[in-house]
Amino acid sequence: DIHVAGNRERHLQATTSTRTRTRTRMKSPSSSPPSSLLFIFLSLLLPLLLVSSVSCVYIPPPPSGPIYFLETFTYPNWTDTWVQSHNTSITGTFVRSNPTPPKGIFNDFGLVTSTPNAPYAIAAPISPPIIVPKDKWLVVQYELHIQRNLQCGGGYIKILPEIEDFSALSSASPYLIMFGPDKCGESSKLHFIMRYKNRLSGEWTEHHLLSRPMIRLAKDDKKPHLYSLVIRPDNTYTIEIDMREAKTGSLLQDMEPPFAPPKMIDDLTDERPEDWDDREEVRDTKATMPDWWDDSHEQYVLPLGARKPAAWREDLEFLVPDPGDARPADWVEDEDGIWEPKMIHNPACVANQCGKWDGRKRNPKWMPPWEPPMIPNPSYQGVWRPRQVPNPHYYEEQDPYTGTMQQKIGGVAVELFTTNRGILFDNILVTSDKEVANDYARKTWYVKRTIHGPINEPGMFDFVNDFVKANNLTAIKDDYVRRGQS
C-alpha cells in the first residue's frame, strides 16, 4: 500500500553518506585558528551560511508512516514517474528546477511552469491504483511557491481516477478531486471540488465548496505556502493553509449542488409556447409627447463671447508620465503586460491651462429625445419554466465520501492554465494519516518557510549574507566552504 515516487533505497543510502560526510567535516581541524572574537562569531554564523551555500545537499526526509503517494522532485529521474501531456491543446511545459532566484536549501527542486500564457497538464500514475478503505481518512497535501507576480492562473492539483493514457490528459479529462488556489486579476479563490457518480444513472457531477475560505495571493508574496485537504468517513472535511485551519464543515451541507439528486426535475419534453409573454414592463402606447417638450437643442453650447485664454497651451498635455516611476527590473511584458508608468500633473502646465481647449457649457434648454413611459405589462405571464416531473434517478445520499472514495485512485495531476512561468509545486503527498502529513510538513515546508522569513519581511539568510558583505567577510566564508568540501 506504499507508493513513493523515486528510489527509496538510493534515498536512504544518500542520507547515510551525507550524514557521514557531515560528521567528517565537523571533525576536520582548522589549518589556521582564528582569533577568539572571530571564532565565536563564526561558530554562530557559519552553520547558517553553509545551509545557504552549495555545500549543503538537500535529502528529502522519509515519511513517518504509510502513504499512498509522495513526490519531492529531488531526483533527476522524475520523468520516469511523471508523464507530460501530448494533447494538442496543451502547450505549456513543466520543468524540474530550484526556486528562482535560488534561496534557502540547495538541491531542493520542484515542478515549475516554464511557458507564459499556456495550458499545462502532467500526471503521475499510482500503480497499482488504490481504493481508500471506508474507515480511513484521505489527506492531500502539497507546497505551492508562486515566484513571480501572478496575473492569472491556477495553483491547484487533481486526484485522478484510473486512466488508460496519461499522455492525453487535458482540461476535459475526468478527475475525482480538485484542490488548491486560483487567481485572476484581483480575484483569488480556493477550489475544493469533488466529482461524484450517481449510483443509479452512472452520471458524474461536480460539487463545489459553497463558501470558500478567504485567501489573498498578494503580488509581493513570493514565499512557499502549504495547502492541505482532509476528508473523513463521517463526511466532514477540513482545509488548512500553512498548517492552520482555514475551513471545516460537512460535505452534506457545504457543497453545491448537493450530493443527493433532486426529487423533481425539468420535463425535457415540455416546450415554451410561442405566445408566452415574459416582459414585466412595456411602453405606454397611449402616451403622447407634451407640447412643451423640445428636443431640438444641443446638449452643450459655447457661451456668447467665450474665447480661449491667451495663455492656454494646447501643445502641452495636462497629464504626463511620472519620470520617477521606472519599470521594475523583473518586468516581463509577455507575462506582466505592457508597462505603463503612473500619470502626474504636467509641471509645465500653468494654472491648469493646457490640453485641448473646450469652452462649451451644458445647455440649460437641452432635453433628451422623448420616449413613452414604461408601465406594467398587463399581459405578463412570468418567467417560463418547464413542468416538473419525478426524478427516476433520485435517492437519498448520506455518504458521498464513500461514493467518491470507492472509485479507484489512479494518479495525481497538475492541470491548469496560467499567464506566468515560475509557479512551483513540491512535496505532493497523499495519505490516510494526518499526523504523517503534519510531520512531513514540519520537516520540509516549515523549514523552508522559516528561511524565507515572515511575509513581506527579510528572511534569515538575507540578514546573514548582508552582514557578511558589509563586514568584508566573504573571503572567510568562501575559505571555510572550500575546506569543508575538501
3D architecture notes:
It contains 9 helices and 25 strands. The chain is of the alpha+beta class and 486 residues long. Strands 2, 5, 7, 8, 9, 10, 11, 15 and 24 form a 9-stranded antiparallel β-sheet that branches. Strands 1, 3, 4, 6, 12, 13, 14 and 25 form an 8-stranded antiparallel β-sheet that branches. A hairpin with a 2-residue loop joins strand 9 and strand 10 (187-197). It is flat, with a radius of gyration of 32 Å.
Shape verdict: flat
Count up the helices.
9
Radius of gyration: 32 Å
Could you give a short account of the major beta sheet? 9 strands, antiparallel
Distance between the termini: 42 Å
In the predicted model, the low-confidence regions spanning at least 5 consecutive residues are 1-34, 46-55, 455-468, 477-486
Question: Can you give the helix content as a percent range?
Answer: 10-25%
Oligomer: single chain
Question: Mean pLDDT across all residues, rounded?
Answer: 82
| Percent range for β-strand residues | 25-35%
